Amino acid sequence: MKKLSKKKKQNQQKIKKNKLYSAKNGINFLKQLKLAKFNESIDAAFYLNINTKKSEQNIRGSILLPHGTGKKSKIAVFATGKNAEIAKSLNVDAVGTEDLADIIKNKKIVFDIIIASPDTMKIVSKLGPILGPRGIMPNPKFGTVTEDIKKSIEEAKIGKVNYKNDKNGIIHSSFGKINFSEKKLYQNLQILFNAIKKSKNNQSKGIYCKKISLSTTMGPGITIDHLSL
Predict the structure, then answer these.
(1) How many domains does the chain have?
(2) On the CB side of 204, how many CA atoms lie within 13 Å of its CA?
(3) pLDDT score for 15
């Protein structure tokens, strides 16, 4: 078992078990911990009351956070002709078709976001076993399969977040960096939570969101009151 550092022990001792924080107080508390030397991300986990075995209850969508995520993502674009030229002009990390597919298959570069024009989906669909598990398979619902390549790239660079639940009905998502102001982090979290609520299917019954927890990249998790959002 890995031994906890002195700082980690001190931070864990600061957390009161079973305490329910308001969103603003929870964000403020995590900012004060300052566990890592690097600029940590702040992540949220939304525990939803859904039956993931029923496809109509599964949640997926995308939202443009008002203050971005603070993360510089590696973006690859599958496109040809004019769309390829547009992508290159916007300085994405890679543009191509079969050659780009080979890069992904050989894991020469690990991308965070994949965008594709509809005419390249025959190539991209073969990458499903690689891109699917990582949650970056291009999808029209996320705006990552599109003819408007320019808009999709610009949104990805600003801080568009794609979200979907895992097999346990939990949505995990980053919503900013620890150096963001409390106000910006709160607004990002609020926008993300509202988007997830709007994605609820009518088939889901009872309390929709059972629990929300927040944590930094290296820090412990805390539970927040969803009514405070």
Answers:
(1) 2
(2) 22
(3) 66
